[in-house]
Design a protein that fits this description.
Rossmann fold; about 500 residues; Methyltransferase, Cobalt-precorrin-4 Transmethylase, Domain 2; Cobalt-precorrin-4 Transmethylase, domain 1; 18 helices; 5-stranded parallel beta sheet; 5-stranded mixed beta sheet; 4 domains; alpha/beta
Length: about 500
């Protein structure tokens, strides 16, 4: 008899990946199958295993997709196959979602399950708009209600008279498309027309927008501004605090959509730095790191590392690949012998330091040419043995330059940059549908592989490059580079992007 799996009803939070709980992340990382909703940020799927089954069952307003019975049946089917199933739901699975119904179906099927609460947009949305749902000077209670009820009901279960009498702060989810009738009912039942109201759309993401008004005019304002779902509505005096407490929407890159093309594993560093400035990120990896063609040859060179005078690392990926093999062969870092270490770029140097080894040479410029110049400054390197740890098919500037100085250079091909063919989170469709303001390239490979996908170039999308070599590859492929980092690393790229949009804002103001 096959072993029954387990279903995890997981809250994906309100949209910002930084608001996902550690338990939710752990469930996603360990899942055999993930079934996710429209409001679950697809970026979180980047934490899933490569072999995880990923199924989208989301429903957007006016769109017909999987119905609830089909979703329940799918959860049960996957669990009966012995899989660890994650049902990923936006916000919290038990707050105005269908999580409770799914839990009932799973329980009736005799399948074990776990509920992983998530941060609900009913709290996070107002907070990111600078609206505290409670404040001693304004209210002593909060009421949550939904504006999207079961269509099978013959009449609304919302007691508008009770809401009017209760007062305090009231937060409504899933009702922006019915805002006119809802506010009308509230007014009929005695709620004053000048009550402050705020609508927060796509809360906690780089697309967040907030519209404020009063109970009497907010519905018309929403129509005038084409303010569509998903949005949270906040009714109450606490809305007036937004004037002083609005913190998130003051971020410099808010509303700017930026494409990150780094590997799935590395994308998070750049994404999180841009997101912290308010950007809306589309992670569309165009490369992945694969093992070298001749792994045995690489392992033999790693094994003989103690025989070299210098080991030169050109990337953090190379460092990781090197020490992954090294510590399979040796259990003591001292087996690396007396080799001195050179590293291109701070990220590469930091990865070496992570293994508690000292970096003896690090050029100011993060390019191969500057490594050669730094070695020249060291004095003669004639007849010194240098092990160059690098990617396959990289530029030959470094081996030629060091050999030209008289060094005996062995190239250890640690990894390959391979085209990323998978798109589990639908990033290509997102780009086609939503467009972007900027696309970032962090290597020549990211440029070439993105273009090889043959995707339509969104109108107005501009190019940001990490440095001159990547920029040249972009230009060679017919692209115009608008942003180039002065310091050729991730921090330098983020700084250049921030300065670029600041200049644009100043020009347009």
């Amino acid at each position: 008899m096959s072993k029954t799996g387990k279903v995890y009803l997981v809250g994906a939070g309100p949209g910002d990946p930084g608001l996902v709980t550690l338990r939710a992340k752990e469930c996603i990382e360990n899942a055999d199958a993930i079934i996710y909703d429209h409001l679950a940020n697809p970026e979180t799927l980047g934490w899933a295993r490569d072999d995880a089954e990923i199924t989208y069952v989301g429903k957007t307003p006016g769109e017909s997709r999987s119905n609830q019975n089909e979703i329940n049946a799918l959860l049960i089917k996957k669990a009966h196959e012995g899989k660890q199933v994650v049902r990923l739901k936006g916000g919290d699975p038990f707050v105005f979602g269908r999580g409770a119904e799914e839990a009932q179906a799973i329980a009736e099927a005799g399948i074990p399950f776990e509920v992983v609460p998530g941060i609900t947009s009913s709290i996070a949305g107002p907070a990111y708009a600078g609206i505290p749902v409670t404040h001693r000077a304004h209210n002593s209670h909060v009421t949550f209600f939904t504006g999207h009820e079961n269509p099978a009901k013959t009449e609304s279960a919302i007691d508008y008279a009770a809401l009017a009498k209760l007062g305090g702060t009231q937060v409504m989810l899933m009702g922006v498309e019915r805002l006119g009738s809802i506010t009308s009912e509230m007014l009929k039942h005695g709620v004053r027309g000048d009550l402050p109201v705020a609508l927060v759309r796509w809360a906690t993401t780089g697309q967040q927008e907030t519209l404020t008004g009063t109970l009497g005019d907010i519905a018309q304002k929403a129509v005038t501004n084409a303010f569509a779902a998903p949005a949270v509505a906040v009714f109450g005096e606490v809305v007036t605090l937004r004037d002083k407490l609005n913190w998130y929407e003051k971020r410099p890159l808010l509303g700017k959509r930026i494409v990150v093309t780094r590997t799935r594993k590395q994308a998070s560093v750049l994404s999180s730095k841009l997101r912290s400035l308010g950007a809306d990120i589309i992670e569309l990896p165009t490369i992945r790191i694969g093992p070298p063609i001749d792994l045995r040859e690489f392992a033999e060179l790693v094994q003989d590392a103690h025989m070299y005078d210098w080991i030169v690392f050109t990337s953090a990926n190379g460092v990781e690949a090197f020490f992954n093999i090294f510590f399979k062969l040796y259990d003591d870092a001292r087996e690396i012998g007396g080799a001195r270490i050179a590293a291109i770029g701070p990220a590469t140097a930091q990865r070496v330091k992570d293994f508690h080894l000292h970096v003896d040479l690090q050029p100011k410029e993060f390019v191969a040419e500057d490594v050669v110049r730094e070695f020249k400054k060291q004095g003669s390197i004639e007849n010194l043995n240098i092990l160059l740890v690098r990617a396959e098919k990289a530029r030959d500037v470094l081996p030629k330059g060091l050999s030209g100085l008289g060094a005996i250079v062995d190239e250890a091909f640690a990894y390959r940059n391979l085209p990323e063919t998978r798109d589990p989170i639908g990033a290509r469709q997102q780009l086609a549908k939503r467009g972007a303001d900027l696309i970032t390239f962090t290597s020549s490979s990211t440029v070439e592989n993105f273009l090889s996908l043959g995707l339509p170039w969104p109108k107005g999308m501009q190019v940001a490059s990490i440095g001159p070599i990547t920029s040249q590859t972009a230009r060679d492929n017919g692209l115009k580079v608008e942003v180039e980092a002065k310091r050729h690393d991730i921090d330098g790229l983020v700084e250049a992007i921030g300065a670029f949009f600041a200049r644009k804002a100043a020009t347009n103001s």
